[in-house]
Design a protein that fits this description.
This protein has 2 helices and no strands. The two termini are 21 Å apart. It has helices at 2-39, 45-70. 90% of the residues lie in helices and 0% in strands. With 71 residues, it is mainly α.
């Protein structure tokens, strides 16, 4: 019924919001790691590329969740 739908929606919304927050935190951590790696005398370009790829994937997921939440 209606109440179950609202409860489901609320739980889903809260779960997505929590997921979004953890993704944003992870995105920030990756940013820091990339920054630190680039500060080193001999940056590991493979590592930087891998971190940037992870960051992009997280950015995509964040965009998807933002889209779901704003629906």
């Amino acid at each position: 019924g209606m109440v179950a739908d609202v409860r489901f929606f609320t739980e889903t919304f809260m779960a997505l919001s929590a997921h979004l927050e953890s993704l944003q935190a992870r995105h920030g951590e990756l940013d820091d790691k990339i920054h630190r790696e680039l500060q080193s005398p001999l940056p590991d370009q493979m590592r930087v590329a891998a971190l940037k790829k992870q960051k992009l994937q997280i950015k995509d997921t964040i965009a998807q969740i933002d889209f779901e939440l704003s629906d």
